[in-house]
Every structure is written in C-alpha cells, then in structure tokens.
Amino acid sequence: TPASSHPQTTAACSGPVLNCEPIENKIRKNIKHSWRRILKECKEKDVSKQGEIPVSEFLDIAEKFKLDLSEEEVNQITTKYDFKNNGKFAYCDFLQSCILFLKPQETSLLQRMIIQKPQIPLSPGPQTTSFFSAMLRIQPQILHCWRPMRRTFKSYDESRTGLLNIPDFRQVLREYSINLTEEELFNILEYYDKTLSSKISYNDFLRAFLQ
Predict the structure, then answer these.
(1) Where in the chain is the domain with CATH 1.10.238.10?
(2) Beta strand 88-89 with 163-165: parallel, antiparallel or unpaired?
(3) DSSP, res 66
(4) Where is the EF-hand domain (predicted)?
(5) Which of 6, 120, 177, 207 has the greatest CB tally within 10 Å of its CB?
(6) pLDDT digits (tens, 9 = 90+) for 149-168
(7) Which contiguous run of DSSP H or E holds residue 78?
(8) What is the pLDDT of residues 20-79, one digit of tens each?
C-alpha cells in the first residue's frame, strides 16, 4: 500500500542507486545488440508516452531479451529507476544510462583519447524522452565515424573555442549522412544549448556516445 511503501522513499533514492553501476556495466554488454528492439517494445507498452512502464512489463522484456538479472539485481535496478515510487520503470533513463554517457566519467574512453573537457562546464537542459530517442537513433552512426567527425568539427571551429554555431554543427552531421529532423535537432539543442547561445559544444556532444 502507499502508506507502507512511503517511508522507503529515502532508501529507494540512496542505497540501491549507488550499487547499480556493476549491474549496468553487465547489462551494457548484454544490451549492446538489442537495445533498439528493447526500446521499441517499451515504447509500445508506454501508452501514455511518459517514458515509463509498469515494472512487471519491463521484467518481461528483460527476460525476453535475456538480460540475465538475478533477483537481487532486479530489486536494485527497479528501485533505482522507479523514480516516482509508483511501480513504474523509467525505461528511457535506464537505456540512456546504458547506451549514452551524459555524465562525465573519470575513466572514459574520451579522456584516454584526449578529447579535452570544455573550458566552460556543460550546464545541460532537460533530458526528455524525445532527446533520448534522437540520441539513441544516431548513436550507431556516430560510433562508426566519430574520429573523422571530430576532425571535421575542429576544422569548422576556426577560433578553437570548442563551440560551433548550429548551421555548421548540422552541416558536419550531414557530411556524415546523419540527417536530423527539425524535432530531433530541437530536442538535442534544448539539451546542449540550454542558454540559447546558438552554439553547441561538439566535444560534449561526442562524449555522450563513447565509453
């Protein structure tokens, strides 16, 4: 009942969350080739388009795609992604955590590849379901060509600020056959250009796809 589960809110937000990284790392390997189908099935069950589905339905999908979670791992990960404590699993946040890397990571591939952090720290906008969907759609293409793409970004960035204006940013993506719809571009800009500067940090953008 809501009354009995209410006092657990604090525990749900702290304890299990800290312990989920090993589980997500394990899932990341399992999910690598099937996350698009997982996302599609989750979206089909998400009638209200809220980015969440009942925990039981997510567990059915996890079993179908052989994510191979123990009972303890299921408890931890469902507690972490039941943000509203309402028995719903925030599948969009879960998938972006496994596939995209929007938070800085100390030992990320990008730091090993010496992609420098921007002089101005990223102050991101909202992480909407539409933003995740757009980023997830283009992720395979970005992974395939991020090194030459980064060189092209830099060639457009004559003043070496790490920032490109929106037309140049979009032009570089087009050069690599990544064509964003107007809506997808809007959702990506809403995240990376929260201050409406009409500039986007291409390193922050690339960093999200690589780990």
Answers:
(1) 20-101, 129-208
(2) unpaired
(3) T
(4) 149-209
(5) 207
(6) 999 999 999 999 999 999 99
(7) helix 71-81
(8) 778 877 877 778 778 888 988 998 999 888 889 999 999 999 999 888 888 888 888 899
Classify the phi-psi angles of 116: left when phi > 0, otherwise alpha if psi is within -120 to 50, otherwise beta: beta
Scanning the structure block, which residue is given the tokens 């395979």? 140
Supply the pLDDT for residue 128.
Answer: 73
DSSP characters for 107-169? T-HHHHTT-PPPSSPP------HHHHHHHHHHHHHHHHHHHHHHHHHHHH-TT--SEEEHHHH
CATH architecture of 20-101: Orthogonal Bundle (1.10)
